[in-house]
Predict the 3D structure of the following.
Amino acid sequence: MNSQLLIISVIFLNTCIVLGGFKAAGKQNRARSAHLLWILWMALFLPVIGSLFGAVVWYLSGRIDRLRDGVPAGYMEMTGRRQNKLEETVQKDREAVPTASVFRHGDSRVQKEFLLNLHSMGITRLKKSLDLALSNDDSETVHYAATTSNLLQEKFRKDIEGFKQRLVPKHAEGYRVLADHYISYLKSGMASSKWQEMTGEECIHFLKEASTEFPEHPDFLQKQAYVLEMLGRKESAREISISMLKKFPEHYGGYEGMVRYCYEEGKWEELKSTISAMKRSVQRDSIPNSFKMTLGVLEGTGEWTNSS
């Protein structure tokens, strides 16, 4: 407050002096009047010029201090938020880049980093990624891919053993998790034909045990039929699906297996009768949306996709 009062007082005093000087200049002769007017104009504008000069010096001194520290002006205030935003954007962009682009157009360093992070991917994406890497022109990238494939195979086996050890009798959910892990691996196509067959047999044996342990749960039979299909045993899968229709006519699983079988074998009349039987026996809201979409395409109507 005191500084503001001082500034106002100085401005007021300067104004009074200048106005008094202009009044006195009119009473002087021509030469003295000209000298006095020049002095008065300087007195009037010098404070303004001084203020502007001081502001420029203050601004430049701040710039020099920041440049001396190696930090551009205005950066410090925003750097934290900008850095976080950039990291978030880069992460999203990295996840959005198609795998093919990484191996066709990326440099070898990016390709190796991508391979090292494959373990965090869903297993269904691994096969395509590894195939692209194995066909790469860079020998080191191919070596990374082969090593990664072997490590992932070992990781899968360890996960299977871990799930088995954690199984709790009379607890169906643990059995489901293990079955889904088997199926995800089989769907990924990572295993050789020999390992695919061996793992498939192991999975089927496990699902048979689960069906015996939990006879009231139709999904273990459904998964068993699905694995048999993947192994090319269509007739065995069909038998499981038919047994499901008899034991669990209200569950969609047996119908789903029969729909796939009839479609692949071109048995259109049996396909129609299967869908008709399902309409009569199965609650619509218990059918997964993915299967509803398949039924809608097969029938060429919006009946399934428009129903909940």
About this structure: The chain has a mean pLDDT of 74. Residues 169-237 form one domain.
